[in-house]
Design goal:
Helices cover about 5% and strands about 40% of the residues. It is built from 3 helices and 32 strands. A 5-stranded mixed beta sheet has the order 1-2-8-7-4, with helices on one face. It has a 5-stranded mixed beta sheet with strand order 19-25-24-21-22, with no helix packed on it. A 4-stranded mixed beta sheet has the order 9-14-13-11. The N and C termini lie far apart (about 240 Å).
């Protein structure tokens, strides 16, 4: 009889073990002829214990911890014993244990022979704690502004998901079903829009796992447009004015040529001497960055030389003739004294009675400007009067230069008609002039001349005076 019971126990034990393994619930250990089972599983699993139909047994019952009336599991106390699904109406009641574990005992009476002691099978259910699995969020900036997509480094969430625990493996899946089934893991980096994926945290020793949601958030990337500016050598440019909505960005960094190049410390006032590319990296409110290139083209300035001209009072001067290659410049503007002063309307025929500076602003073919100062020095012209005595018979004709101004008698010269200049006479008498008109020119030391005309009249012919001669005849 004992041999028969032992055989039945082993058969029953094998059937239950096969059933549990087929359902992939935990693992069966300590199989012995005592009909005791130690079943390990993970928290959250459900272990279903279902007696198999054995014609040799009847009146199956389940107990918790020990076989006693108070520990029998029924529909009323099932929840208190961590049993959620029971089928006590059947002759072979099954139980589903979801957590906590403990000792569960199955009893059955022998159908034949009647009156034999009941048969007990003991099941030690152990639920291994699940690994920590915390929800996490990965936030990155979109790869291309307006594209809504970004590359996520999924492993960046590992520390949060595991809480820093060791001895676990984390894998990521598009759906929770994939995570639970451990199929189709995602590779990293993972291209995605804003979405929710799932992490599976699995204990490397027990195989227990837990899944948790990981939120992928794509923040918009700013789009900072490139720009360009053309300036003339020597000019200053405000780079910030060339970036639309510059004030809306934060943490702007300006560098030369490339990201990470030499820092630009005063982007609002740069003064490049050659064409230069400036690089801006700035963030929007989400902390996402974009890069813009601002190319400043530097055109050469013309070099218009200053000049000077000395004239005599009353003379006209052509200012344009005093500027080298004047015709190669465009948009010339002449003013008096300073840039923006009184305009000179006819720079080719300027007359001034005093020394004056004229300012030219003109452009080359690139539209770059330079300024030149043309100083016109005005020297005074001499002035004088001519005195001519009345020509009398028997006298020599002469002209006297009188009332000389604008010149010094010590340095002035004079000439008659087209003759050579002679030292100013002392006394200032000019003699030996022939009858007719003559030009007398006086020149001061500055080279300014004044010419005046004089006419030499012919000396009257000798005229006999009316005399009455009375002759007295002698008496001899």
């Amino acid at each position: 009889m004992k041999s028969l019971l032992k055989t039945i126990c082993i058969v029953l034990m094998s059937i239950i073990a096969i059933h549990l393994q087929a359902q992939s619930i935990g693992s069966i250990t300590t199989v012995s002829t005592s009909c005791s089972f130690a079943v390990s599983s993970c928290d959250g699993d459900t272990l279903t214990l279902t007696p198999q139909d054995q014609t040799s047994y009847t009146n199956y019952k389940w107990y918790r911890t020990t076989v006693s009336v108070g520990n029998e599991i029924n529909a009323t106390n099932a929840a208190a014993n961590n049993v959620v699904v029971t089928n006590f109406a059947a002759n072979y009641p099954s139980i589903q244990v979801i957590s906590g574990g403990g000792i569960y005992i199955l009893t059955a009476e022998y159908a034949t022979p009647a009156g034999c002691a009941t048969k007990n099978d003991t099941f030690e259910l152990n639920f291994t704690p699940l690994p920590v699995a915390n929800p996490a969020t990965l936030t990155v900036c979109e790869s291309v502004g307006g594209g809504g997509m970004a590359n996520f480094i999924l492993t960046d969430a590992n520390a949060t998901v595991t809480g820093g625990a060791t001895g676990v493996t984390v894998t990521y899946y598009a759906t929770q079903a994939d995570a639970r089934a451990k199929v189709s893991p995602l590779s990293s980096p993972y291209a995605s829009s804003t979405a929710t994926i799932y992490a599976r945290v699995e204990n490397n020793t027990t195989g227990c796992y837990k899944t948790v949601a990981v939120s992928l958030t794509v923040n918009p990337k700013p789009t900072i447009a490139d720009n360009a500016k053309t300036i003339c050598d020597g000019e200053t440019v405000d780079l910030t004015s060339l970036v639309a909505s510059y004030g809306s960005y934060s943490n702007p960094v300006w560098t030369l040529s490339t990201v990470g190049g030499t820092a630009v410390t005063t982007p609002a006032a740069v003064k490049p001497s050659a064409t230069t590319t400036y690089v801006l990296v700035a963030e929007n409110g989400s902390g996402c960055k974009d890069t813009a290139n601002i190319v400043v083209t530097v055109n050469p300035k013309p070099t218009i030389a200053d000049n000077a001209k000395t004239i005599c009072d009353g003379e006209t001067v052509d200012l344009t003739s005093l500027v080298t290659s004047y015709g190669s410049y465009s948009n010339p503007v002449w003013t008096i004294g300073t840039v923006g002063g009184t305009a000179v309307t006819t720079p080719t025929t300027v007359t001034t009675s005093s020394t004056m500076t004229f300012i030219l602003v003109a452009e080359n073919a690139s539209g770059c400007k330079d300024t030149a100062a043309i100083t016109v020095t005005v020297n005074p012209k001499p002035d004088f009067t001519l005195a001519k005595p009345v020509a009398c018979p028997g006298t020599s004709e002469e002209v006297t230069i009188m009332n000389l101004t604008g010149a010094s008698t010590a340095t002035a010269t004079y000439k008659v008609d087209a003759g050579a200049y002679l030292a100013y006479p002392t006394p200032a008498n000019i003699t030996g002039l022939s009858v007719g008109s003559h030009n007398i020119t006086v020149k001061n030391i500055e080279g300014c001349e004044t010419t005046k005309s004089v006419t030499i009249s012919p000396v009257p012919a000798k005229v006999c005076l009316p005399v009455t001669v009375t002759r007295q005849v002698g008496t001899n």
